[in-house]
Design brief:
about 55 residues, mainly alpha, about 65% helix
């Protein structure tokens, strides 16, 4: 993620959890992200999925 305030470890953990199918907010909780980071993360992932899906 560009210009993220999350540590590289948390970013990698979120990506790993998201790729294996964990819901974005749950992934953020498992990576020990704050509530604000959870919201931003889930929003970013939903946007990425939409942009990369066939619609």
């Amino acid at each position: 993620m560009r210009k993220s305030r999350l540590s590289q470890y948390k970013q990698n953990k979120l990506i790993e959890l998201f790729v294996i199918g964990v819901i974005a907010l749950t992934a953020a909780q498992l990576a020990n992200a704050t509530k604000a980071q959870q919201t931003i993360t889930s929003t970013v992932y939903v946007c990425l999925i939409y942009q990369n899906s066939r619609h």
